[in-house]
Amino acid sequence: MGCCTGRCTLIFLCTLQLLAALERQVFDFLGYQWAPILANFLHIIIVILGLFGTIQYRPRYIVVYAIWTAVWVTWNIFIICFYLEVGGLSKDSELLTFNISRHQSWWSENGPGCVRKEASMSGIAGLDSHSYISVIGCALEYRYIEVMHSSFQILIALVGFVYACYVVSVFTEEEDSFDFIGGFDPFPLYHVNEKPTNLLFKQTYLPA
């Protein structure tokens, strides 16, 4: 297939997904968001598997990738609901950190235009000299940044799912049309290679 086919488009989409997942993984690590870190890690593995299957013409790997895209869309919808506090969810809960820390998204303190306000802690030994109080001046609230990240992931995953199904169907059709004995046989099935006539005569006069 040429480079303008669904296969090459799927390769591009998988590469784009890898870059987006790696970028998201970095910021989730900085924010100690353990649940997204694990989800991103699994996502990266499956996308690499889908990329390998697309390059090496392995439809089974692409099927696994297509199934995972549906799971990935569901996960990102949950993330959107979490940060928009839909259905009783709270963005201030410790759900994404497995209740082992009170960290929030890295963007909550380092978003565009955000300024941290700190106050010194005096008379308390063993603690840091500064205590975080609030963040002001953010041009965009951090939850909307997380929502945009998840929305972009959903968009790529949906397009990737469509192209994955298309590529699997193309690969399946090619496998069905392949003759495992003679390859892609351009001759009819009833075609038999006949021996040269002179060879037949020679075999007739062989001594007993």
Short structural summary:
By secondary structure, the protein is mostly helical. Helices cover 57% and strands 6% of the residues. The chain contains 6 helices and 2 strands; from the N terminus they run H-H-H-H-E-E-H-H.
Output the keywords.
208 residues; 6% strand; mainly alpha; elongated; 6 helices; cell membrane
Describe the protein.
With 208 residues, the protein is mainly α. It has a domain at 6-98 and 141-179. Helix content is 57%, strand content 6%. It is built from six helices and two strands. It has helices at residues 6-30, 34-55, 59-83, 107-110, 142-176, 197-204, and strands spanning 115-120, 130-136. Helix 1 (6-30) runs antiparallel to helix 2. It is elongated, with a radius of gyration of 29 Å. This is Sodium/potassium-transporting ATPase subunit beta-1-interacting protein. One of its GO terms (cellular component) is plasma membrane. It is a multi-pass membrane protein. InterPro entries: Na/K-Atpase_Interacting. Pfam families: NKAIN.
Shape: elongated
Q: Kindly state the mean pLDDT as a whole number? A: 81
Treating each run of at least 4 consecutive H or I residues as one helix, how many helices? 6
- State Rg: 29 Å
- What letter string, H or E per element, gives the SSE order? HHHHEEHH
Contiguous uncertain segments of 5+ residues: 123-130, 179-192
